[in-house]
C-alpha cells in the first residue's frame, strides 16, 4: 500500500510518500513563527505533488493520506479537539475536503505520538509486538499505547496520548496542560532550561554562558564533568524512568519504546531507565524491555500505512 504522509512537528512538517514499511521520498517544510496551518496548505500540497512526481506515481496510486498532529485528535471523526497552541487554526478547518480536492484521496488523522508508535511497531524498535507504550522525549513528552495490537484511544480520544502528563510530583511544577508535576513539566524540553537556571551553582556552570540551551548542551556539559549539568541530566533521566513505570502500570506493555532527539545519548539513558523499571515496576510476568526508538523522525511518517489500513479494514474501535 502506498500513502501520503504528513508529520506536523513544531519546527517543521515532515512530508513523505510511503509504501508499507519504507519511505519512497521525503522532504520537510520549515515552520517559522506560528503562521497557522492555513498559510501552509499551499506549500504542503506543492511539496507532496513534487514528491509524487519524483517517484513517478500519481495521487490515485495512493490509498490515502495520513496526518500526525500534535494535539488531541479523534481519529474516528477526523476532529482535532485540542492543541497546545500549535496549528490551532486546524481545529476549524476541513482538512478532509482539502485532501480530497487536492489529491482525490481520503484523509486519516491521528495524534503524532500515536503515529510514531505505529511506525515503530510496523517498521522499527517494536516490530512484532502487540503491547507497547512509547515515550517521545522532545519539547514536550509524547505518549502513546498499543494494547492487544490496537491503539489505546478511549472515549474522548485522550487515552494513552497523555502519558507524558502523568504526574511524577504532586507538589511539582505547573504544566502547560494545567496539571501539577507532570513528567513533561519536570523533564520536558520546554521546562528543563528553567529548572537548570534555578539549580544551586548555575552561575558557575558552563550552561550559564550560552543564551539558550537544551538537552544537547546539558548532556555535552555533563560529559565534560559540569556538576550542574550532570545533576540536571540525571534528574531528567530519573523523571523519564519514573514516567516509564507509570506508563507500564497503566498499559501493561511488553516493550517501552523511547524516542526523541535526546536518544542520541541512548547508551546512557536506556540502561538507567531499564534498571529503574527492573527495580520499581510491579509485574507478575517479568519486566518490560526499554528500547530506544529505531526510526528517528521517520517514525511518524511510517505510521501512515498502518493507520490507513485501520480505516480500510473498517476500523474496529
Ligand atoms: Zn501536563
Descriptive labels:
317 residues; alpha/beta; 5-stranded mixed beta sheet; 12 strands; 33% helix; 21% strand; binds zinc ion
What's this model, at a glance?
The protein is about 35% helix and about 20% strand. It contains nine helices and twelve strands. The mean pLDDT is about 95.
User: Radius of gyration from the CA trace?
Assistant: 20 Å
Number of helices: 9
SS content category: alpha/beta
- Write the element-wise H/E pattern from the N-terminal end onward: EEEHEEEHEHEEEHHHHEHEH
Instruction: List how many beta strands DSSP finds.
Output: 12
User: Could you report the average pLDDT, rounded to the nearest whole number?
Assistant: 94
The bound ligands are: zinc ion
Low-confidence stretches: none
Major sheet description: 5 strands, mixed
The first-to-last residue Cα distance is 22 Å
Fraction of residues in helix: 25-40%
Q: How is the largest sheet built, in terms of strand order?
A: 3-2-1-4-7
Overall body shape: globular
The portion of residues forming beta strands comes to 15-25%
Amino acid at each position: 500500500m502506498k500513502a501520503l504522509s504528513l508529520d506536523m512537528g513544531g519546527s517543521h512538517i515532515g512530508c513523505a510518500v510511503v509504501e508499507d514499511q519504507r519511505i519512497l521520498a521525503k522532504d520537510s517544510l520549515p515552520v517559522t513563527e506560528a503562521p497557522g496551518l492555513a498559510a501552509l496548505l499551499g506549500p504542503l500540497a506543492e511539496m507532496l505533488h513534487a514528491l509524487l512526481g519524483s517517484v513517478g506515481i500519481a495521487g490515485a496510486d495512493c490509498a490515502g493520506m495520513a496526518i500526525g498532529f500534535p494535539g488531541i485528535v479523534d481519529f474516528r471523526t477526523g476532529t482535532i479537539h485540542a492543541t497546545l497552541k500549535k496549528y490551532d487554526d486546524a481545529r476549524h478547518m476541513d482538512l478532509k475536503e482539502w485532501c480530497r480536492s487536492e489529491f482525490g484521496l481520503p484523509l486519516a488523522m491521528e495524534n503524532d505520538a500515536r503515529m510514531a508508535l505505529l511506525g515503530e511497531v510496523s517498521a522499527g524498535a517494536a516490530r512484532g509486538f502487540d503491547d507497547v507504550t512509547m515515550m517521545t522525549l522532545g519539547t514536550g513528552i509524547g505518549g502513546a499505547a498499543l494494547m492487544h495490537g490496537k491503539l489505546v484511544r478511549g472515549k474522548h480520544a485522550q487515552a494513552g496520548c497523555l502519558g507524558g502528563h502523568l504526574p511524577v510530583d504532586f507538589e511539582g511544577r505547573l504544566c502547560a496542560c494545567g496539571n501539577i508535576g507532570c513528567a513533561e513539566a519536570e523533564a520536558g524540553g520546554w521546562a528543563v532550561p528553567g529548572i537548570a537556571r534555578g539549580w544551586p551553582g548555575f552561575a558557575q556552570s558552563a550552561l550559564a554562558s550560552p543564551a539558550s540551551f537544551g538537552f544537547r548542551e546539558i548532556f555535552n556539559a555533563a560529559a565534560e564533568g559540569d556538576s550542574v549539568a550532570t545533576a540536571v541530566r540525571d534528574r531528567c533521566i530519573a523523571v523519564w524512568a519514573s514516567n516509564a513505570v507509570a506508563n507500564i502500570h497503566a498499559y501493561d506493555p511488553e516493550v517501552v519504546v523511547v524516542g526523541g532527539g535526546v536518544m542520541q545519548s541512548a547508551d546512557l539513558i536506556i540502561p538507567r531507565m531499564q534498571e529503574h523499571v527492573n527495580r520499581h515496576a510491579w509485574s507478575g510476568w517479568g519486566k518490560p524491555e526499554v528500547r530506544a526508538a529505531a526510526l528517528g523522525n521517520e517514525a511518524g511518517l511510517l505510521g501512515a500505512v498502518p493507520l490507513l489500513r485501520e480505516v480500510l479494514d473498517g476500523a474496529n474501535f
